[in-house]
Amino acid sequence: MKNLRDLKNVGKATLGDLTLLGINSVEDLARQDPTQLFHELEKRTKCRQDPCVWDVFAAIIHEASTGEATAWWEWSAKRKNLQIDLKSNP
Q: How far apart are CA 66 and CA 89, in angstroms?
């Protein structure tokens, strides 16, 4: 199995976010939900996050659970179609 940093859309910032969220392995990531991770990140950082962070989370969770790497921006339309309210108050 790959390391988190080996996933297509994981760079330094995302790796830092995952560490802050207590996710240390691809196996841990595969069991996550992008919306829950997004809101938990806002809560822990006490900062509003860019909605594209949700897209990155969705892409890396998909890769972790299926092995299929996709570009993060391919998830933007899904986020918009789901009408996910990412405007939370941390």
A: 32
